[in-house]
């Protein structure tokens, strides 16, 4: 199956920006939401959904819906095992180091687990308790489990109903749907996990972004699929809006909080709820990228390091979490704990490690595929000789 190196490069870029954002250094604030009031997380989720829509639609067409469902479930299981391994690393090594040196950043990160270790461990494996930084993969698993049913329905009946329902659920999420469900769970199941410990991302809002990407990817599967095109007036409007968002983000007096201390207005751009103006900012950036990105990438040299990281996005993402947790355990969450050259050295070491993880993961994938091909050939030879 053909890989789109451009998509891999963009996913690699999102991983780089996530690392800058999560590692506490002097570069965290300047490179957080660098293009406006949109973070790397939105781009990464949208691109991952696009690839999933493209790949799993091809599987459905070539091998059937049941094969597509099994492929989704295998991927979800793989991500779950990775999440479990990362939680184990957090609850053992990071917890031990943090408590030994009395690190407030680790104590704050693990406050519920330290207070109720058995409940924290058990509910974390159930993806109910989600410590900060480890709340992205549970949402991804949730989407992967929903996707085979949604994709099968959309391929049979069209995407209109799916996207209307998804938009309606996003709208409910803006008005406390998650909190309402949590109240029911506490009342009916006596759930001991506080709402604030169940992950910062509102999955009922973010599913809209995921299923939008899934639809976009599925629509690219057809051999005669036309590239996305936009009228000139819309492109001009998108460029103007994107530039204004960029200027507002970097030259406004409030930095990453568009309206300063006005919490009600900031909700319009809220990351965790995927606020409406945040979606507008993401849409205009998407239009600009689709319209001008291909021409720009033809003129730029291919960044193979980014492509490698994007191709091995899951192991690289987990390696970046390990690096961030280690830094939090030893240095805390202060962005000025080291001199500037120390931050540069730290980032250089971390990115070198992420690239090494990407290359190792890609090598291992090629090794397994080559062994699988060899076994297939051996089986065919054996069959022929037996006849």
TrEMBL record:
Keyword Acetylation in record: no
Residues passing through the membrane, by range: 7-23, 35-56, 77-101, 121-146, 158-178, 198-218, 230-248, 275-293, 314-332, 344-365
Alphabetical list of Pfam families matching this protein: OpgC_C (PF10129)
Keyword terms of this UniProt record: Membrane, Transmembrane, Transmembrane helix
Source domain of life: Bacteria
Name of the protein in question: OpgC protein
Native organism: Variovorax soli
């Amino acid at each position: 199956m053909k890989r789109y190196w451009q998509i891999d490069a963009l996913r690699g870029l999102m991983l780089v920006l996530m690392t800058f954002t999560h590692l506490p250094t002097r570069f965290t604030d300047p490179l957080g939401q660098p293009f406006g009031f949109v973070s790397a997380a939105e781009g990464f989720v949208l691109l991952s959904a696009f690839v999933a829509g493209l790949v799993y639609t091809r599987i459905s067409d070539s091998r059937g819906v049941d094969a597509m469902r099994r492929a989704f479930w295998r991927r979800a299981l793989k991500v779950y095992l990775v999440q479990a391994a990362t939680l184990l690393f957090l609850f053992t090594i990071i917890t031990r180091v943090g408590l030994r040196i009395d690190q407030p950043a680790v104590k704050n990160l693990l406050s519920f687990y330290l207070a109720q270790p058995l409940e924290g461990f058990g509910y974390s494996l159930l993806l109910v308790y989600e410590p900060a930084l480890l709340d992205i993969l549970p949402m991804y698993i949730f989407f992967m489990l929903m996707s085979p049913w949604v994709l099968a329905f959309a391929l049979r009946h069209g995407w209109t109903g799916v996207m209307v329902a998804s938009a309606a659920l996003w709208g409910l999420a803006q008005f406390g749907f998650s909190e309402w469900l949590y109240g029911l769970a506490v009342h009916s199941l006596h759930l001991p996990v506080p709402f604030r410990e169940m992950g910062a991302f509102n999955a009922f809002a973010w599913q809209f972004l995921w299923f939008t990407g899934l639809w976009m990817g599925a629509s690219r599967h057809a051999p005669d699929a036309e590239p996305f095109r936009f009228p000139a007036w819309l492109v001009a409007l998108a460029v103007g809006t994107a530039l204004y968002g960029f200027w507002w983000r970097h030259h406004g007096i409030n930095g990453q909080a568009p309206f300063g201390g006005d919490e009600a207005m900031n909700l319009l751009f809220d990351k965790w709820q995927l606020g409406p103006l945040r979606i507008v900012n993401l849409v205009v950036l998407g239009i600009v990228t689709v319209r001008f990105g291909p021409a720009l990438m033809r003129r730029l040299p291919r960044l193979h390091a980014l492509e490698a990281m994007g191709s091995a996005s899951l192991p690289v993402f987990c390696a970046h979490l390990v690096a961030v947790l280690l830094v939090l355990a030893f240095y805390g969450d202060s962005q000025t704990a080291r001199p500037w050259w120390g931050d540069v050295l730290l980032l250089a070491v971390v990115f070198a490690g992420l690239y090494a993880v990407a290359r190792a993961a890609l090598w291992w994938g090629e090794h397994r595929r080559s062994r699988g091909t060899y076994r297939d050939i051996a089986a065919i030879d054996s069959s022929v000789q037996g006849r």
